[in-house]
Amino acid sequence: MPADERGILERIRAGDTDAVQDIFEQHRTRIYRVCLLYTENADDAKDVLQETFLRAYKSIGRFRGDSSFPTWLTRIAINICLNLRRSRRSAERLDADRKDLLEHHLPPSAPPNPEQALNMRELRERIVSLVRKLPPRERMAFVLKHFEQYKIREISELMKISDGTVKSFLHRAVVTLREGLAEERARQRGRLVKTATRPDLTKG
Amino acid sequence: MTRDSHKCGWSSEALVLYLYGDLSASDRERMGSHLSACARCHRELDSFRETLELVDAADLRDMATFRAPGDIGELRRDLDRLKPASRGVAAYRLRAFARAAAVLLLAGVSFLAGRHWEQLVTTYTLLTEGTPQRPDTVPGELHDAPGDLLDGNGLLAFSKQTNGYFDRSRLVLLEFANANAATSSPALRAASQILLGETDRVRQLAHRLNDKRIERLVSALEQILRQIAALSGQGDATAIAHIKRQIDDILDQLEILRAAPQRLAVRRS
User: Fold this and answer.
1) What is the pLDDT of residues B177-211, one digit of tens each?
2) Which end of chain B is more exposed for a tag (fewer CB within 10 A), N or C?
3) Which residues of A touch B62 (CB under 8 A)?
4) pLDDT for residue B197
């Protein structure tokens, strides 16, 4: 464990809540990203982030150093995510949740072609929708692997499942995404074909 | 969606792992050679690669990074309400254990005498009424007496109407967590059974409070209590270990509820 991290943990054990701020600064982006990619809901992700650090502070006495501190912290966040119970939500709420993940982000240069922009937006929405529909643990394994680049063994440790199960979850997630995206592209191609074959009504 | 092996002997799953660089060095080399000879595996690998490239093109990771919140204010307020970790951990656990032991003793007596839980709690409250105040109390510090009043009118009413359901559950879970690993006590199983009998009513009250988190906590407690109640009293070591792993998470939530109930207050309908 890095010396500065050890020092921070000792301060937390001593009841120094300022030390939690240091840990928060170091890890909040990564933890929040995992939470948001998993929950696709900014409110839930922020709640999980807050609870993660709160529980870490409360449970610091239980951290024995068997794993690294970031791993322990991430495991707390994953536990909270996986235990989230989703209440039934209206279609409007689902749309609002998707917007949480999709809005406010502008690419460095907007594509000049409006059709391209529309297709990218639809693709993004479709991917978010497909990831959301993955079973919770497959979704978590995919988020940790694809977006956070954890190794299989690390994911196994974080999720407390076997390596084989991680591999299985990952494979199933990728297959599901492949099938879903294939449908989306077929749908977009179908729309383009209809557009291309529309008769020119300006010619008499 | 299966791990079907192609006739060539390589599984679809192995192709995904190959893309992610998660095959062993020797398997990676063999796969590399194989792909140059097997059209089917090559096609499937390309389809997986294209899928993952599309996911990358959607740029979700960067969007999530862009939006990470930086405000620690709310977290600091919650932390300030909690008991300082170092001062509290050992002493807190000792007090919790002592109280849980008292509950266990009373639960055992009550169980044998066939008394109701309400009488048990009343007796417990009377026993602890004379406990001297801790000198280092600060606002929002944890209290150990059952049925302790919580902030927030809704939660206060909830606690009163459920006779401190969360506090009583917490005591049972604490005692279970500290108990012998090999066997479960009849008193704890009986206490769990009594709490389970109240669950429907508690859940209805939580629903009226319109707080999804409270409802979720009630459901989670119910699951744990069912498992405890179902223990047979002999040869339970594996089941007990499994339950103990789940208890940590629930205890954390119950502690947060006691220390910072506004965190579990109604946020949005």
Assistant:
1) 777 666 677 778 888 888 888 888 888 888 877 77
2) C
3) 105
4) 86
**What is the least distance, in Å, from the CA of A10 to any CA of chain B?**
9
d(CA B239, CA B230): 10
Chain A contact set for B252 (CB, 8 A):
55, 58-59
Cβ–Cβ of B65/A29 closer than 8 Å? yes
Query: Are the Cβ atoms of A152 and B22 closer than 8 angstroms?
Result: yes
Find the CB nearest B69 among A46, A58, A168: A46
**Mapping DSSP to helix (H, G, I), strand (E, B) and coil, where does residue A189 land?**
helix
In angstroms and rounded to an integer, the radius of gyration of the C-alpha atoms of chain A is: 21
For B3, the closest of A25, A53, A171 (CB atoms) is A171
Most confident among A42-56, A165-179, B93-107 (mean pLDDT): A165-179
- Reported residue count of chain B is 269
ipTM: 0.75
Query: Do B61 and A33 lie within an 8 Å CB cutoff?
Result: yes
Interface contact B63-A42, CB threshold 8 A: no
What value does the mean pLDDT of chain B take? 70
